[in-house]
Amino acid sequence: MPAPLTFPTGAPIWIELNTSDVPAAKRFYEGLFGWTTTDTGPDFGNYVTLDLEGAAVGGMMPQQAPGVPDAWTVYLHSSDVATTATAIRDAEGDVLMGPQDVMEMGRMLVAADADRGIVAAWEPGTNPGLGVIAEVGAPAWFELHTTQFHREVEFYQQAFGWQTATMADTPEFRYAQLLVDGQPYAGVMDASAYWAPGAPAAWLVYFLVADADAALARAVELGGAVVDEPADTPYGRLATLSDPTGALLKVMQSL
To answer: Which CDD domains does the annotation name (predicted)?
Structure first.
């Protein structure tokens, strides 16, 4: 990602954890990634900002929908969320919240995509988005897992203006990337081989770590759980884990 960070249309620009236990989540992520958490107070909906050495890595807020699993939400860059809302509906998605102002910080919406996966859009104001990417302790990759691969690729092309490159398209492995000027920003994975039948799509965030095995051991110490053991891939050593309330995330150790 270029420095200073720039976010073309449709690229991930912000991440946000909805959690049913804010104190536990704060302890977990502070201990795992070395983040600093800052409470903004009731005037701001008890939102918690997340920083890595002074650079924004996302936000955290109390779960607003009882019974909904805790999860990380990925926000995609929009130059006009009202136009994006129309495009989402035209692409057979559903706008669940917004578009609305977040004071002077920007405008946002939350939507369900064509496979019912939750995705959000952010039109920057004074909050320009993530301040650091692809450094140890920061988000490094963003990936949508779905059992409706081709439908979802078309949805994000229509709703967020994605230009995609298909990396593989066989029953064994289907994967597409969002590319802007040759730079990859996000991926779509066919999850048919391992996703529960009928389960909605879901975005997963990869966080860069120095040592994937050590990160998983530390996560367990902090109350998390291992979902997928570390495995070497052409893109680094990867693993999946859950935080203390079950929100999924991935860790990525570079080659």
So the answer is: SgaA_N_like
Half-sphere exposure of 153 (CA within 13 A, CB side): 19
- C-alpha distance from residue 78 to each of 88, 148, 187, 219 (Å): 12, 24, 18, 34
Contact 76/11 with Cβ under 8 angstroms?
A: yes
Amino acid at site 107: R
User: Could you give the CA distance from residue 90 to residue 34 in angstroms, rounded to a whole number?
Assistant: 41
**Element containing residue 234 per DSSP (H, E):** none
Packing angle of the helix pair 22-33, 212-221 (nearest 10 deg):
150
pTM for this entry: 0.96
Domains of the chain: 12-124 (3.10.180.10), 139-253 (3.10.180.10)
> 71-77 and 12-19 as β-strands: parallel, antiparallel, unpaired?
antiparallel
CA distance 56 to 5: 11
pLDDT digits (tens, 9 = 90+) for 194-233: 998 889 999 999 999 999 999 999 999 999 999 999 999 9
Long-range contacts of residues 193-197, Cβ cutoff 8 Å, at least 24 apart: 195/145, 195/146, 195/147, 197/147
Q: Greater confidence, 151 or 44? A: 151
- Which three-class secondary structure state does DSSP give residue 74? strand
